[in-house]
Amino acid sequence: MDLTGARWRKSTKSGGNGGDCVEVADNLPGVVGVRDSKDPLGPTLAFGPAAWRAFIGSTRRR
Hints:
Layout: E1 9-10, E2 22-25, E3 32-36, E4 44-47, H1 49-60
Antiparallel strand pairs: 1-2, 2-3, 3-4
């Protein structure tokens, strides 16, 4: 998956201390990227938009 041009952002729920966070890039058509903020050059997960919405929806209900 080509994530060139991805604009990564941290959750607004993340603390400002640079701790354990994930970053999300949702600015590319047809894909949502997720990575570990401590290892930005490491592995990246890629989700389709529908799968990402389902994941976010299930976490918000908890």
